[in-house]
Structure to design on (132 residues):
């Protein structure tokens, strides 16, 4: 790994985020299971969590996506389908805001990592043996 930052394109980073793969090599899996992330990429050795609390920003991404999609869903149900504010709309919205964040958790983390790596490209220290 060179000493200068490895500049990754936005498309490259988004491909990794959508596939839940290492944002650097696009091969290694980031998550062992639904919630537990690996410390390093199994292929290139990239250290996923750069510092303590690194993924805190992903909470904001998840919350923002949930809120935005819930508003779109409310608009569709109430205005397009003419359901107004009846109990069915509230039940659908409640179910959505409870289930969507659980499913989106990993994607929010991957998008946060992609944003960080786009703004702060990885350097050789990000590939050391901290987590091995």
């Amino acid at each position: 790994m060179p000493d200068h930052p490895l500049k990754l394109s936005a498309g490259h980073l988004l491909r990794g985020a959508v596939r839940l793969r290492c944002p650097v090599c696009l091969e290694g899996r980031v998550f062992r299971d639904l919630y537990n992330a690996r410390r390093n990429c199994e292929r290139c050795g990239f250290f996923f969590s750069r510092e303590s609390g690194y993924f805190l920003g992903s909470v904001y991404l998840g919350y923002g996506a949930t809120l935005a999609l819930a508003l779109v869903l409310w608009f569709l149900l109430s205005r397009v389908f003419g359901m107004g504010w009846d109990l069915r709309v509230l039940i659908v919205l409640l179910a959505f805001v409870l289930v969507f964040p659980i499913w989106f958790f990993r994607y929010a983390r991957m998008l946060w990592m992609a944003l960080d790596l786009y703004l702060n490209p990885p350097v050789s220290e990000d590939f050391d043996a901290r987590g091995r």
Notes: The helical segments are 10-19, 56-80, 87-119. The chain has a mean pLDDT of 89. Residues 10-127 form one domain. Residues 87-119 form the longest helix (33 residues).
